[in-house]
């Protein structure tokens, strides 16, 4: 494999920034839910064997403290017409009955065991069981799943957030009881629409009444709850959106993720007949502002572009409305209690389509990477049968990528602390991307304070576009390198 030229220039001219924004601000952005750098489209099979990578990670762990946010993947979803709920861009497999689930759980256990030599000494900060639809499991399965974690890490800390994701109609009382008894303390429910007519576009057999019933079950068993809602849905009006938010708030939900519909790929909602029913971008911007005004007025606090937490009442405890699994990663480089030691938050993923994000160290000479497990159940099982880690592809970051990943995470929170950035990367962010900040300031989309740059007004709505902008030169470089068969990691940055 060849190497790219001696150094790369990732700076922008004022013209480049202006024309990028003029062109992109009138298009639908497509990195709204998965806002990583670079997109998995640019990942490829890793050249270093997994065992070697994991040993290397352990070596870095000797000088940088690693804290782990564990993700456990579930492939299955109930079949819908249109497929994949019409809008979903996540990998999944059709649920064909409990036999397939049992077989998967056995494979999953085998993958947990493969990580024993590498992950068993790690410290867990949060756990998230996502999918797919993890509440398709039967009540007896939840204890078994938690047992896998317990066995790998030598215990499950009782004081961390442990979330299980699912769809409302499957959170019946028997399951919620089993979920709570197994040690989960938080449920994330994908509701999308509370309106019984609008939800039909997804082909899901889901009713508003089932959402209330699931929430009551959570309350009865003392599980924190979060609701996913989507705006920009086919035929959704401002009134529909506000009615859903008000209903969720009145029902006492602790946390709301309010995503803008991401329209992409071969999903049914991306077909011309459905696109014609989508609110315009201008309407979506109005929806963003109206939802913000409503939720702030209802006592919610905005944590990221799309997630909202109810401010805890006295004596209620912070845990109920937090979303540690996601938030820990927003600021993944921190100071440890030990003087001079750095901590990094990592994401370790086990199971179907799970992602492992290993920022091992911020030393420019060290290696950092991300990889994703197989997104087809057949390949996942075949790899495990062959004694291999079921990894499909990944990406080796260069030092500039790590800065971009950090900036992407920070931008999700609608602000960037440039003093932290300087302390971590020894670089003045306001100088290194001055053309971007000047243009955003001119448009009234940022305000710059003593230590923080904050996105304001419609600038918040456009954060996915700014993420694409700031990464655009590097992404073009990655794309070109792949075309020429060059090694993307070998680029010398500074
Ligand atoms: C991977 S799904 C899994 C949760 C669960 N299976 C469900 O559907 O409710 C997690 C969340 O991602 C969001 N999501 C998935 N595809 C999306 C899209 N195209 N646009 C916006 N949000 C999306 C939905 O709000 C969904 O609840
Ligand atoms: S939205 Fe949820 S239930 Fe629907 S296909 Fe995606 S992961 Fe499955």
Rg estimate, integer Å? 22 Å
The top-level CATH class of the largest domain is: Alpha Beta
Fraction in helix: 25-40%
Major sheet attributes: 10 strands, mixed
Write up this protein.
- With 494 residues, this protein is α/β, with parallel strands linked by helices.
- It has two domains: 14-30 and 413-490, no CATH class; 50-327, TIM Barrel (Alpha-Beta Barrel), CATH 3.20.20.70.
- The protein has 18 helices and 18 strands.
- It has helices at residues 14-24, 50-60, 98-114, 116-119, 139-153, 173-181, 208-220, 238-250, 272-275, 281-297, 324-330, 377-385, 399-412, 418-425, 429-432, 434-442, 458-461, 463-483, and strands at residues 64-74, 76-77, 93-94, 123-131, 161-166, 186-192, 224-231, 255-260, 300-302, 307-310, 333-335, 342-351, 355-358, 368-373, 391-397, 415-417, 446-448, 452-455.
- The chain has a ten-stranded mixed beta sheet with strand order 9-10-8-7-6-5-4-1-12-11, sandwiched between helices. A three-stranded antiparallel beta sheet has the order 13-14-15.
- Strand 6, helix 7 and strand 7 form a beta-alpha-beta unit.
- The chain is globular and about 60 Å long.
- Residues 1-6 and 488-494 have low confidence and may be disordered.
- The structure holds S-adenosylmethionine and iron/sulfur cluster (SF4).
- The site of S-adenosylmethionine (SAM) has 16 residues, from strand 6 and strand 7.
Structural topology:
Elements: H1 14-24, H2 50-60, E1 64-74, E2 76-77, E3 93-94, H3 98-114, H4 116-119, E4 123-131, H5 139-153, E5 161-166, H6 173-181, E6 186-192, H7 208-220, E7 224-231, H8 238-250, E8 255-260, H9 272-275, H10 281-297, E9 300-302, E10 307-310, H11 324-330, E11 333-335, E12 342-351, E13 355-358, E14 368-373, H12 377-385, E15 391-397, H13 399-412, E16 415-417, H14 418-425, H15 429-432, H16 434-442, E17 446-448, E18 452-455, H17 458-461, H18 463-483
Bound molecules: S-adenosylmethionine (SAM) and iron/sulfur cluster.
S-adenosylmethionine binds next to strand 6 and strand 7.
């Amino acid at each position: 494999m060849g190497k790219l030229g001696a150094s790369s220039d990732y700076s922008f001219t004022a013209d480049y920034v202006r024309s990028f924004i003029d062109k992109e601000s009138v298009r639908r952005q497509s990195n709204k839910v998965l806002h990583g750098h670079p997109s998995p489209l640019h990942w490829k099979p890793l050249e270093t064997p997994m065992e070697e990578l994991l040993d290397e990670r352990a070596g870095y762990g000797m000088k940088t403290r690693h804290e782990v946010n564990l993700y456990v993947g579930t492939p299955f979803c109930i079949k819908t017409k249109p497929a994949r709920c019409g809008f979903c861009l996540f990998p999944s497999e059709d649920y064909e009955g409990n036999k397939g689930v049992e077989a998967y759980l056995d494979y999953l256990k085998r993958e947990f065991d493969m990580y024993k030599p590498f992950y068993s000494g790690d410290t867990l900060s949060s756990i998230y069981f996502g999918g797919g639809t993890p509440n398709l499991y039967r009540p007896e399965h939840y204890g078994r799943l938690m047992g896998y974690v317990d066995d790998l890490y030598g215990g499950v800390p009782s004081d961390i957030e442990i979330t299980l994701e699912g769809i409302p109609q499957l959170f019946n009382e028997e399951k919620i009881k089993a979920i709570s008894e197994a040690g989960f303390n938080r449920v994330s429910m994908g509701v999308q629409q509370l309106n019984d007519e609008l939800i039909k576009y997804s082909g899901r057999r889901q009713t508003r009444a089932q959402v209330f019933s699931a929430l009551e079950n959570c309350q009865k068993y003392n599980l924190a709850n979060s609701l996913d809602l989507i705006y920009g849905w086919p035929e959704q009006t401002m009134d529909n959106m506000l009615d859903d938010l008000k209903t969720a708030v009145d029902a006492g939900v602790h946390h709301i993720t309010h995503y803008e519909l991401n329209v992409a790929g071969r999903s049914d909602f991306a077909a011309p007949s459905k696109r014609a029913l989508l609110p315009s971008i201008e309407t979506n911007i109005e929806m963003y502002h109206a939802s913000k005004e409503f939720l702030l007025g209802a006592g919610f606090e905005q944590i990221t572009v799309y997630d909202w937490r109810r401010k805890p009442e006295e004596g209620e405890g912070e845990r109920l409305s937090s979303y540690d699994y996601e938030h820990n990663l927003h600021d993944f480089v921190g100071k440890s209690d030990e003087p001079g030691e750095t901590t990094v938050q990592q994401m370790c993923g086990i199971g179907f389509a799970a992602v492992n994000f290993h920022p091992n160290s911020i030393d420019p000479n060290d290696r950092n990477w991300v990889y994703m497990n197989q997104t087809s159940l057949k390949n996942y099982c075949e790899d495990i049968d062959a004694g291999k880690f079921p990894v499909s592809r990944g990406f080796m970051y260069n030092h500039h990528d790590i800065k971009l990943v950090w900036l992407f995470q920070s931008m999700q929170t609608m602000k960037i602390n440039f003093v932290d950035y300087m302390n971590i990367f020894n670089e003045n962010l306001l100088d290194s991307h001055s053309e971007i900040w000047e243009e955003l300031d001119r448009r009234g989309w940022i305000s710059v304070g003593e230590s923080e740059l904050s996105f304001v007004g419609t600038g918040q709505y456009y954060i996915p576009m700014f993420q694409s902008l700031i990464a655009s030169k590097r992404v073009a470089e990655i794309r070109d390198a792949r075309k020429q068969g060059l090694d993307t990691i070998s680029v010398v940055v500074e």
